[in-house]
Write a structure and sequence with these properties.
The chain is an alpha+beta fold and 800 residues long.
């Protein structure tokens, strides 16, 4: 059964182990059975190639409760990016590594990785709590990410002409992608801005939104793997311009994007839409003008008759017939972004009581992907929604991404039709000279009805049957959904799909931009923390596109840094060179539990190792400390940013100060808001339906540390005050230059309040001490679609 073994079962096992009867019972790891087999017995075993996935029961769980799937994927990516940034910042001495916050965040969303939760097969009520945990984890991870990037940014030289923006690449591969940034100004936002690399070259950029003192911009950034780069956003009298015919460079760099609502293109692709809003053609111009589609892309609706196990299952018969209907015209088609960095066409359509908004986009730069952001306002019952990709490449097999490997599967059969995959699936043409991959950022269910068609399952909403009504699953995904997908034309050499894996990673883990202030720094304007290559030259080594760094984190029990690498495409890789910071002092191999498997040799501060096809390896590394010269970007030779350090006049050898200490402000507590389980009537925070509520004393520590900031909390003893009730009183502080004031506050319910610090009024939103941090904006109750999360809160969480 599920859950831990019952005590009586463990007792019987122990009794059996200690028995001297004729049968010997052992408690061992599962692989011991195979280790005990003789060579003759092994030779007699049958072999099976492939996978053992469920045929019908479970096929729906790849898709059910779409928001949980999306939040989980986003938190996985966010946690990885946050860990990497904090490892780098802690190594530089800029911050303390926030191990507790990261661990708590991981556990908060990983706890939902179990049957009937992340699978999407639970009753609706559980997701109020599951969504909340996902949002709490997301908030904490986002804070940790900003903390880590901020630590690295404090060591960068950000002395630019305009406003410095640091772009962070959390992937181990170098890339050139579009990045979005919100830039705030000390006064009114300028009419135009232009974006430059720190060595002076302008990059394609455009303004997409504006406020009174802020702009949302998009620009093309080229950033190395696990790197940080400073860009200069300059107010300008003129915008970044481009050639309307696409003949030549944009803003002094890279090729352009251009077009109209029915046809648009960049250096790589030309996309055509028809009057109904369907994408009818995608031409890869780099492949000699190769058409990627055999028919228009479409969103198809199928009857969804999975009645016995509604959320668990998708039935073979339901997807083996033509769709009941497809999303078509009339369509509202318009250009919503047009600039040197990105071109976006928006298509709005309605079908079967649901609304569909597709934003098709092409970027400048390398322009590798044709992306579509799809917003679905779903209100169609008893329906399975699939995105259909009829491709010009044909093959009876497709390759699917499994995260740490790939697998080939054939066209649909009655025994294998709805199958799982992560970031992408691809068809390589039988000629093996080219193929097309479909990428996505939050979907997991796929099928392949014929040699040239891939279908990605977007939503699974079963018809109203006894079981679906009983479990509340006939309305489980009514509401708004988002998915980012892309087409990528690949030209594999010998069938390799390394470029597809890299593109899938780039789509899922975008570049991130952070505005900062101007200051000198020992790292120059670019800093790369690690490198994975086939040589031991930091500057000229070529990134490995098919070997991926899957994790970078601080070890659980030591001061080492744990790094996990994986071979992703099924090829052996001898002599992989891995470098970090100023070099590696010692290395040992570990497993996922960080158990020690012995020391590993080093070559001039590099870890050199072999990888077998699809192999995962983990290493615990002791890193050399950062040099005072700030050449943390190179293992050997000159720092690649040496010219930038010289040009900005940064101190060539500044000391790296330790993280600043925090000191608590003494408070005059005047209210008791805490009570223990044994004395529930002791404290009171608020009254809810004439019942007093307090914060549990068991969850109230004497001290709370968050991002290095230490808060002293009040006592929990009965009758002791432990909080300050805000009534307009003054709290004396003794600030020193450069100080920040951090306030730990809660309210009876969500409130917008104002703190006055000196003569400055600071508006702050203070959350309620109970209830939910976040909820999804779509549920059904008594046949009504609820859009206000407060409408479906339990009564005991609704404040008067």
């Amino acid at each position: 059964g599920g859950g831990p073994a019952p005590e009586d079962s463990v007792a019987w096992l122990q009794q059996s182990i200690e028995s001297d009867g004729p049968i010997e019972v052992m408690s061992v790891r599962s692989d011991q059975l195979f280790r005990d087999l003789t060579p003759k017995q092994v030779a007699g075993l049958p072999t099976y190639q492939g996978e053992l996935i469920l045929t019908t029961h479970g096929t729906g769980s790849y898709t059910s409760q779409a928001l949980m799937k999306r939040l989980n994927r986003k938190n996985e990516q966010l946690a990885d990016a946050a860990e990497r940034a904090n490892v780098a910042a802690a190594w530089l001495g800029a911050i303390d590594y926030p191990a507790d916050k990261l661990t708590d965040s991981w556990e908060r969303f990983l706890v939902h990785h179990f049957h009937d939760d992340l699978t999407g097969t639970g009753i609706p009520e559980i997701y109020q709590y599951s969504w909340n945990d996902e949002y709490v984890a997301q908030n904490r991870l986002a804070t940790a990410l900003v903390h880590g990037v901020g630590g690295v940014a404090s060591r960068l030289d950000t002395q630019v002409n305009g406003i410095p923006v640091v772009v962070y690449n959390p992937l181990s591969i170098s890339r050139s992608d579009a990045v979005e940034a919100i830039v705030r100004f000390s006064g009114p936002a300028p009419e135009f801005v232009r974006v430059f690399e720190t060595h002076g070259d302008e990059v394609p950029s455009q303004i997409n939104e504006r406020g009174e003192d802020w702009l949302k911009i998009v620009f093309i950034a080229g950033v190395g793997g696990d790197s940080y780069a400073v860009f200069d956003v300059r107010p300008s009298d003129t915008p970044c311009t481009h050639n309307p015919y696409g003949e030549g460079p944009a803003c002094g760099m890279l090729s352009d994007v251009w077009g109209d609502a029915k046809e648009f293109q960049n250096i790589r692709y030309r996309v055509t839409l028809d009057d109904s809003g369907n994408v009818v053609s995608v031409v890869d111009k780099s492949g000699g003008g190769r058409e990627l589609l055999s028919a228009p892309l479409r969103l198809a609706m199928y009857d969804d008759w999975s009645g016995v196990w509604p959320a668990w299952e998708i039935l073979y018969k339901d997807i083996s017939v033509p769709p009941r209907e497809v999303v078509g015209g009339p369509a509202e088609i318009k250009v919503v972004e047009s600039g040197p960095a990105r071109f976006v066409v928006e298509v709005k359509r309605k079908q079967a009581d649901s609304e569909f908004i597709e934003r098709h986009r092409l970027d400048a730069g390398s322009g590798d992907r044709f992306e579509t952001e799809t917003i679905i306002r779903w209100n169609t019952m008893g329906t399975l929604l699939k995105a259909e990709y009829p491709l010009a490449a044909a093959n009876e097999k497709a390759v699917y991404d499994l995260g740490v490997g790939t697998i080939e599967r054939w066209n649909n059969t009655e025994k294998m039709y709805e199958v799982p995959a992560l970031q992408w699936a691809a068809i390589t043409d039988k000629s093996k000279s080219w193929g097309v991959a479909v990428l996505n950022d939050c979907k997991h269910g796929w099928d392949k009805p014929d040699d040239s068609t891939l279908r990605m399952t977007l939503l699974h909403l079963p018809f109203k049957f006894i079981m679906s009504v009983r479990y509340g699953q006939d309305t489980m995904d009514i509401g708004e959904h988002r998915v980012l997908s892309a087409l990528f034309s690949h030209s594999p050499v010998g069938g390799s799909l390394d470029s597809v894996s890299a593109q899938g990673a780039r789509l899922n883990q975008p570049l991130l931009a952070f505005q900062t202030d101007k200051h000198p720094g020992p790292l120059g304007s670019r800093f790369r923390f690690l490198r994975l290559t086939h040589s031991n030259n930091w500057e000229t080594g070529v990134d490995l596109g098919d070997v991926f760094v899957k994790a970078v984190k601080k070890a659980e029990d030591t001061d080492e840094v744990v790094v996990r690498v994986a071979e992703g495409t099924g090829k052996a890789h001898p002599d992989v060179h891995f470098g970090v910071g100023e070099g590696i002092l010692s290395a040992r191999e570990v497993n996922g539990m960080e158990d020690d498997f012995g020391p590993l040799p080093l070559q001039d501060g590099w870890l050199v190792f072999d990888l077998m096809p699809y192999q995962l390896r983990s290493f615990a590394l002791t890193l050399a400390p950062p040099h005072g010269s700030g050449s943390a970007s190179g293992q050997s030779g000159e720092s690649p940013d040496a010219h930038e350090e010289a040009s900005t006049g940064a101190d060539p050898a500044p000391a790296l100060p330790a993280p600043a200490d925090s000191r608590p402000v003494r408070l005059e507590y005047d209210v008791d808001v805490v009570s223990s389980n044994e004395a529930r009537g002791d404290g009171k925070f608020a009254n809810v339906k004439d019942v007093s509520f307090a914060i549990p004393a068991e969850q109230w520590p004497a001290e709370w540390v968050d991002d290095g900031i230490r808060y002293e909390l009040g006592p929990v003893d009965d009758g002791k005050p432990n909080a300050v009730s805000a009534k307009g009183q003054a709290i004396p502080i003794a600030p020193q230059a450069g100080d920040r004031l951090y306030v730990l506050a809660a309210a009876d319910k969500d409130r917008d309040v104002t703190f006055t610090v000196g003569d400055e009024e600071v508006p702050v939103s203070v959350q309620g001490f109970t209830g939910f941090i976040g909820q999804w904006t779509g549920r059904v109750k008594d046949g009504k679609v609820l859009l206000d999360p407060a409408e479906f809160l339990p009564p005991y969480l609704k404040l008067d």
